[in-house]
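Sequence only, no structure available. Ideas?
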Amino acid sequence: MRDNEYFDEIKTGGRPKMVINKRGLKLVTDLSKIMCSNEEIATSLGVCVNMLTNANNAKLFNQAKAAGQTDAKKSLRRKQFALAAKNANMAMFLGKNYLDQRDKQEIESTISGGVSLGFDDDLMG
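Reply:
I predicted one. Tokens follow.
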């Protein structure tokens, strides 16, 4: 585990603790901007998921990941709104999701006379 450029070694009385550093947090944020999973992020950092979610790293990792995902969502939303100016379907999608607009379809039908849903014995063989 030593010599990982994304983690710093903190000396303790026993086994040293591996703590994610600024370079590692930047990579986590960047990968989160494209919605990478924890497994994909861990692989890119050269560690297992447990290393990112342990007591030494969980808080910093979760903050960096949340920041990256927030940026990704803002970017996607910006692109959706730009597309809505050219695409009626996107405009309707955004209207339904953000403005509580709905398609109202009122169907009215009347049935006059009797309705029979029986089986004809001659047809049944």
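The two ends are 78 Å apart (CA to CA).
Hope that gets you unstuck.
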